[in-house]
Amino acid sequence: MALERVKIIKVNNEPLDEMEKQVSQALLDLEVNSDLKASLRELHVTAVKEVDCSGGKKAIVIFVPVPQLKAFQKIQSRLVRELEKKFSGKHVCFIAQRRILAKPTRKANKLKQKRPRSRTLTAVHNSILDDLVYPAEIVGKRIRIRLDGTRLFKVHLDKSQQTNIEHKTDTFASVYKKLTGKEVNFEFPEPYL
Description:
Distance between the termini: 56 Å
């Protein structure tokens, strides 16, 4: 139990659930047995969530502290490959654990600091999308508002990464829908010259 705690540091020392124990153990195994040892030693995760995807598949969403996100992204492609081997048939995504602060109102905002832009709902949702599709880059976004008022976000991804992440776009869409409630559609348009 003490060993599993090392890789997952939760707020208020909450108990770990079964999925978090498995991911923590997998990360520990990788730290001990692979060439990722030096990079993984300093890193930890804050939470793990399992999300149902289309076609009866499941995805594992691993939340990491925002200051460590860059370090995770350096080794993300190898880490995802190794973790997907361990949890066969499940896609793995890394997302930073961000906080959304409520919109300041006249009553609530007496003598408080101004809310940073990075803590707004829109900024956090955009950052989640960026984290989700990494290592691909978002090159454009379109919002289609249907006749019934619902919105569909069309996200254009970098064509150079199409072979790496095209098979995961459905997973990304369902994870994003679960986390933010927004529908999103990924496309790989031809680059404009």
